[in-house]
Model the fold of this input.
Amino acid sequence: MKRKDIIEFEVDKMEFGGTTVSMLGNKEIHMKGGISGQKVKAAVKKARSKKAEVKMLEILEKSPIETANPCKHFGICGGCTILSVPYEKQLEIKERQVMDLFLNQDIFGFQFLGIEGSPQDRLYRNKMEYTFGDEMKDGPLTLGLHKKGRHIDILTVDGCYLVDQDFIKVLTSTVEYFDEKKLPYYRCMSHKGYLRNLVVRKGINTNELMVNIVTSSQEDFDMTEYKEMLLNLETQAEIVSILHTINDGLADAVQCDELRVLHGRDYINEELLGLKFTISPFSFFQTNTKGAEKLYSIARDFVGDHENKVVFDLYSGTGTIGQVMAGAAKKVYGIELIEEAVVAANNNAKLNGLTNCEFVAGDVAKTVKNFKVKPDLIIVDPPRPGVHKDAIRDISGFGAKEIVYISCNPKTLVLDLVEFKKYGYEVEKVKCMDMFPNTPHVETIVKLKKVN
Ligand code: SAH
Done:
């Protein structure tokens, strides 16, 4: 086997993160994508004596486990990769993947509580960020998600299973409206054009909708008619916020140079486990509201009795987890890198009448050691790269009896757990929670106990 060879094989094992490993003769074939049991055609990118890296070209035969009805975009859209696998089976696969990662690091002897599914495996997202473009060169205007493996081709995802009809209505009416106006979409290579993104957010428990149209400043288009069009849509939720964001940033990401409020307010409200949160157009908020309620409930169960305890909420975002604990706790301290999120967290705590929360801005690895108080319990919820080694050292240095680790990346989680062990923390129990059905992601909650 050599570079550029075309090979055919049956996909064997799905690893966490959406990659697969299969055996062909005595070679391990590593590939991005694929579902166990599929027969595929692939091009060899790199070949060594025992291993090869390949790129999938075509699915020759679908897998016997692909018995669910996917949406009409499946296979073309870069969004959901395992939508064709029934939900129960998806959960089984993810649970196995997380267990394997633990075993690979020789982490044994804990209580494994399995995996919990998302309350909804479809229509669960509360936010979508769509991009304007076209599906083929000089084709009609499209608005939606990138095609699988493509940077520029955009698919109008009007049959998407991840969101409810309000999202679809706003999406389709927006693309129709602007297609008629013949405004150019923004090209991320030449940086020319006007229409960039459409961001839709919904307060699932409050029934409030935010529509944010993002453009460059290269045209001076009057959005009044567009706003009226949106307000006349028969959405099930109330549109309480219509925004126009001007973004001239060169990166292919939604940034804000100027925010214009076209209708209502510049935020929506959401409720989680009886607490209120205001969500501003650019702030982080868990994208599966009902799933987040379940995730935080599991975290609260793992924490157990926190009556009158001092709790650290590290990587606190908008302070959701800390506030869920604050009702019973004596005091909650949070650290979060993004200043805006810290301001939101403190405001939210006030809104909820919680006077025992204090969220501060900073990098956990640099600032956690500055806390002079001694926590009884530490909760960490880091981003995908996990907890910095210095932070693990400093967090352990407080000598708290218990640490609850919430992870969106079990690969870095297990490495961090090995590191925590050096400081005397052992894994007591583990539970997975699927916040992102139909995608390869999964959350894992771990309780660590200080043993020496
Ligand atoms: N606990 C929150 C947010 C979790 S997401 C929730 O459940 O909503 C992880 C958060 O860590 C993000 O808000 C990110 O901005 C923040 N973050 C990333 N690196 C950080 C660092 N080095 N120090 C502190 N916060 C960080």
